[in-house]
Specification:
Layout lengths: L11 E4 L5 H10 L4 E4 L5 H9 L2 E2 L3 H6 L3 E4 L4 H8 L5 H4 L5 E4 L5 H12 L4 E4 L2 E2 L1 H7 L2 E6 L2 H14 E8 L3 H30 L3 H9 L6 H5 L1 H6 L9 H17 L5 H17 L9 H8 L13
Parallel strand pairs: 1-2, 1-4, 2-3, 4-5, 5-6, 8-9
Antiparallel strand pairs: 7-8
Helix pairs in contact: 1-7, 1-8, 9-13, 9-14, 9-15, 13-14
Length: 312
């Protein structure tokens, strides 16, 4: 932890200690903040508290009562709404003047509705989804998009900087969730077209490791070629830490935004359908990098093998 007295810092609450929430919460603790946490999985909050020095709460209301800043890191807007509502929800214990930082990948319109509920309690909700995955969550190098009231964002900024090294205000409430969905749309498109190119090249006879190296030195480079193909596809590990179902959800949000803004998006629609097809084919609980298996099935060809271990 840093040398600053934790008593001078705002107290922080965390609701959701999943694959992302755990390292993000750990970074908050390492920065010297008092942290009260809860998770739906039995015993997970207690284990997190044991390993990080956080405090495990009995319910979301207790988290809110103990916190100046309450972070939600949950799968969907529906989960966030459930955590906020009810007799034991965040709203039941929320302090006047506190800030709720909604860091899930939520639906922009639903986020605005939740912000109104929080405002009725004398507090402020901002949306602050992240990009970078589990590896960058562990190192505190997430990119964090933020939407909402500027004063509330500034109050939460030091806590956000404990988790990320790039905090950018996008606009009004809901705008960050919109931007996160659009970012994942671009990421999903890059992954899909890259896998198809890898399959074409491999079937032609080009070494897969060499293809990755050339893409990363050329204009075809993207996040997937750099950080996913060799690490999670060619290795057949498929464990990047972000769910296929969550990626499909974000692409659906992006397409909803296209419809709401009357923006033709034919390629985006096809991309979303491809990812949804992979989710349906592979079933629940799969990593998003397993999307490659759909393209492999269509091509009757599997990537990976010796070239996966080639280091250049």
């Amino acid at each position: 932890m840093d040398k600053q007295d934790s008593a001078t810092k705002p107290s922080v609450g965390l609701i959701g200690i999943g694959s992302m929430g755990w390292p993000m919460g750990a970074r908050v603790r390492q920065a010297g903040y008092t942290l009260t946490a809860i998770d739906a999985a039995p015993g997970r909050a207690e284990q997190f508290a044991k390993e990080t020095g956080a405090v495990a709460a009995k319910d979301a209301a207790a988290v809110a009562r103990a916190s100046d800043i309450v972070i939600t890191m949950l799968p969907t807007s529906q989960d966030v709404a459930a955590a906020l509502g009810g007799d034991n929800g965040v709203l039941a214990g929320l302090r006047s003047g506190s800030v709720v930082v909604e860091m899930s990948s939520g639906m922009p319109s639903r986020t605005r509705e939740l912000a109104e509920l929080v405002a009725a309690k004398g507090a402020t909700l901002i949306d602050a989804p992240v990009s970078g995955g589990v590896p960058r969550a562990k190192t505190g190098e997430l990119a964090i998009m933020v939407g909402g009231d500027e004063a509330a964002i500034e109050k939460a900024r030091p806590v956000l900087l404990a988790m990320g090294n790039n905090v950018t205000r996008v606009g009004d409430i809901g705008s960050a969730h919109a931007m996160k969905a659009l970012n994942n749309l671009v990421s999903a498109g890059g992954f899909l077209i890259g896998i198809e190119a890898m399959l074409i090249g491999s079937k032609f006879g080009i070494d897969e490791g060499i293809m990755v190296d050339i893409l990363n030195a050329s204009t075809g480079m993207n996040n997937s070629t750099q950080k996913k193909f060799r690490q999670f596809v060619l290795s057949r590990a498929f464990n990047a830490g972000f769910g296929l179902d969550l990626m499909t959800k974000d692409l659906t949000i992006a397409l909803d935004l296209a419809r709401e803004t009357a923006t033709p998006a034919p390629f985006s629609a096809l991309c979303r359908e491809m990812w949804a097809s992979a989710a349906a084919m592979l079933g629940k609980g799969k990593d998003h990098t397993a999307m490659a298996k759909l393209s492999e099935t269509l091509a009757h060809y599997e990537l990976g093998g010796a070239s996966a271990d080639t280091k250049r």
